[in-house]
Specification:
The complex is a heterodimer of chains A (111) and B (114). Chain A is mostly beta strands and 111 residues long. Chain A has no helices and 12 strands. Chain A has strands at 3-5, 10-14, 19-21, 24-26, 32-38, 44-50, 56-58, 64-68, 73-78, 87-94, 100-101, 105-110. In chain A, the strands form 3 sheets. In chain A, strands 2, 5, 6, 10, 11 and 12 form a 6-stranded mixed β-sheet that branches. Chain A has a 4-stranded antiparallel β-sheet with strand order 3-9-8-7, with no helix packed on it. Classes of the chains: A mainly beta (111), B mainly beta (114).
Chain lengths: 111, 114
């Protein structure tokens, strides 16, 4: 069965520090991969996506993610976190019409 | 261009009542999917419509239903509301049915059942 795992329920970082959010997937083939962000009370906003090609993907708001086939991972990174990045982050994988979402990682940013 | 629009944004209903939520997809998008989001269960897929046909369905009871109109707008209905139906209901749209298609979310409808 298809699955997406985000091992960290919460992550706390200081403003200005670097960030890495983990995502592992289980799929029959290489899936299409997405990262979404959800601010409190809002819907999900697409940060970036990987379909094929360069395994390092640039997204909005200074985020990037790297696809590693050997590790079945698609980790999200940002070199310097801003207080406004505090939100819930969802990784998703799709190989059919409906993507499978992870449970999300809540990012807390300390001043 | 306008994003996915959901109405109403907030509503309060009483147990046993029914509710209808509306979703207008991004112009040109023909696939509409619905999700329920709760703190305990995370993001759960309800159903997906494409060209007025329900093509995929999640594991929810028959009280949850939906439909899609010829202009791709969609509605979902929950009958005989239960306290546990309190959640954020998210609608998402995508351009077509190809695998790997990117879905875009609306801001959601907050339903509180009292």
């Amino acid at each position: 069965a298809q699955s997406v795992t985000q091992p960290d329920i919460h992550i706390t970082v200081s403003e200005g520090a670097s960030l890495e959010l983990r995502c592992n997937y289980s799929y029959g083939a290489t899936p299409y991969l997405f990262w979404y962000v959800q601010s409190p009370g809002q819907g999900l906003q697409l940060l970036l996506k990987y379909f094929s090609g360069d395994t390092l993907v640039q997204g909005i708001k200074g985020f990037e993610a790297e696809f590693k086939r050997s590790q079945s991972s698609f980790n999200l990174r940002k070199p310097s976190v801003h207080w406004s990045d505090a939100a819930e982050y969802f990784c998703a994988a799709g190989g059919s019409y409906i993507p499978t979402f992870g449970r999300g990682t809540s990012l807390i940013v300390h001043p | 261009k306008a994003g996915v629009t959901q109405t109403p944004r907030y509503l309060i209903k009483t147990r046993g009542q029914q509710v209808t939520l509306s979703c207008s997809p991004i112009s040109g998008h023909r696939s509409v999917s619905w999700y329920q989001q709760t703190p305990g269960q995370g993001l759960q897929f309800l159903f997906e419509y494409f060209s007025e046909t329900q093509r995929n369905k999640g594991n929810f009871p028959g009280r949850f239903s939906g439909r899609q109109f010829s202009n791709s707008r969609s509605e979902m209905n929950v009958s005989t509301l239960e306290l546990g139906d309190s959640a954020l209901y998210l609608c998402a749209s995508s351009r077509n049915s190809d695998s790997g298609n990117t879905i875009y979310f609306g801001e959601g409808s907050w339903l509180t059942v009292v």
